[in-house]
Amino acid sequence: MLLVHCPYCDETLPELEFTYGGEAHIARPENPADKTDDEWRDFLFIRTNVKGPHFERWRHAHGCGRFFNAVRDTVSDRFLTTYKADAPRPDLAVLLADASMKEPSK
Amino acid sequence: MTAHVDLNMARTLAKSSAVSVELLPLVARFSLRAGTSEQAALSKALGLALPTKIGQCARKNKLEVLCLGPDEWSILAPEDQAVKITDACEAIYAKAPHSLTEVSDREIAVQITGVKATDLMTIGCPRDLDLLPVGEARRTIFDGVSAVLWRDGADEYRLDLWRSFAPHVISLLETGCTELAAE
């Protein structure tokens, strides 16, 4: 089982309390009516499908109920960080450097 | 199969040498949602400071307030105090908008006590219970069901369960109660 750190509860908790919420940092268009069908399709359905560190949303459904963002490696399932939904997107290079300092073997 | 359980009558549901499971009497329950700027006014209206850290509880005059999320609280009170709470919050609604919903009928409470109470909790709760301090509570999951788990003492727990899920959880607790005694 994964252990997920909830930035609102500030506790590291079992995955069972959480639900996955898809890719993070996808901004809804200001005016959807201006978009072509293809652009709207891309907004709704087309995701980056990263192999490696992935910015994604999680929800602490059986807990504080909050959505938050996480960076998880889709190959190893390792969480590099989690942060509040209104926090800026962290710098991936810094996160990777921190992760290799902590556990260089991974 | 889950058997029918009468949830309206407080009584001992299961008891063994290891642990005892009791259905507690009904209490008035409220769900309170409010922003940061309204918290001071609501604390004054309720007569106790709303806890701001998730999982912390405030208690005063049989009133129990638990912080469930950054803007969410659960209020438990004796049934005869329900009107007092709604009136006090309604009086300040104009200057401190909030949402106070009575959810008394939604949940029932089960108390688990005994030397193996923590062992019984671990059959349904994936959390590390050593990290749950006495006097605090958390909303968590218990055998697939969302529940509020209170730690009232080292070997004393309370589970707030949604009424419709309660027979499922109670039957699991009854089985666990017997099995822990047989160990």
TrEMBL record, chain A:
GO molecular function, one term: sarcosine oxidase activity
One example of a Gene Ontology biological process annotation: tetrahydrofolate metabolic process
Taxonomic superkingdom: Bacteria
InterPro entries on file: SoxD, SoxD_sf
Record-linked NCBIfam families: soxD (TIGR01374)
Protein name stated in the entry: Sarcosine oxidase subunit delta family protein
Species whose genome carries this gene: Thalassospira lohafexi
Species classification: Bacteria, Pseudomonadati, Pseudomonadota, Alphaproteobacteria, Rhodospirillales
TrEMBL record, chain B:
InterPro entries with a match to the protein in the record: SoxG (IPR007375), TrmE/GcvT-like (IPR027266)
UniProt superkingdom: Bacteria
Name recorded for this polypeptide: Sarcosine oxidase subunit gamma
Organism name: Thalassospira lohafexi
